[in-house]
What does this fold into?
Amino acid sequence: MGNEDDTEVMESEGSFMRPYLLTGGRTRSDAGELAVEAMVAVSAGSTKPDQKELAQIYTLCETPNSIAEISAKCSMPLGVARVLVADLWGAGTLEVLETTRSDDIAIVRRLLDGIRNR
Amino acid sequence: MASATDNAVPQARPVSAKVVVSGGFGVGKTTFVSAVSEIAPLRTEAKMTSAASEVDDATFVQQKTSTTVAMDFGKITVDQGLVLYVFGTPGQDRFGFMWNDITAGALGALILVDTRRLDECFNAIDFFEQRSVPFVIGLNQFDGAPQHGIEDIREALDLGADVPIVRTDARNSDGALDTLVQLLSHILTTLSQAAVPAAAPAAPTTPEVAPPNPSARPAPVVTNDMRSAAMSALAAERGQ
It folds into this structure.
């Protein structure tokens, strides 16, 4: 168990710029910052984008998925997934679902009851 | 294909929430996430340059070394309309800048501790204290680790009586879920107390907002500032 986190850090050289070609070099979208746990779903009546990566995100979001899940399942860095999703959100193709406020007592109670009764 | 798809808008539109699992290097964060998650834990990566520059400039490609910071996370579908994500923080302190991103909006945190390497959790404790994120200390069970008393550990970590310290076994799904329940209970207690209008910091807990276990010892009034100062002093002593 002691070494389980050892793979968390991987050094690589020269590859970091490539994923950001997808975002035109941007590390943030004009549409705004999205939380890693924010869930995203396709908007009603929207059209699947042409570009491969965007289409991949679109297909995945036919069931709601979080930014982090999109990043993991589409094998793209978190920052890239966030920018692409924000763009699709800004274009009305995707919808961002509600995230909880960290002081929402009712939600915490629901989580507690739900997990306790597993 | 740009053709209109016949997608039906998903009927379920869940709300998502997040808790964080933190602690030092190799303390069992990933194991814990696996134990509570209903899906195989996923790994997301963030590419970072040491300069953490706003815009990546390809002309520096030859000089720069990029680092990939990986974060493991799991998911629990609590009911049709509510999903809880459990995020592990990157294990090394030099990636502290990623912690803000992961912890923003988190309900609370579990800080895992290996009793053989207590000092490795200092940074995590400091981080969540400073941001007033409710947290629970989970003493992860390692074979051959010394079994210190809870109160000895509380003293060593310089924590007030209001911070729960529990024993957990990240390898065991039931045990890990119990720990998650303890964290959520603590978050609920913390929020309930904070919800009291104009609560005077020095006032004893009033009956109507008493935590579920009224037999609990009254929490001494220890401000975060005081604890951070004590923590810094302790860290300084240890040459950090």
Observations:
- Chain B has one domain: 15-43+65-194+210-237.
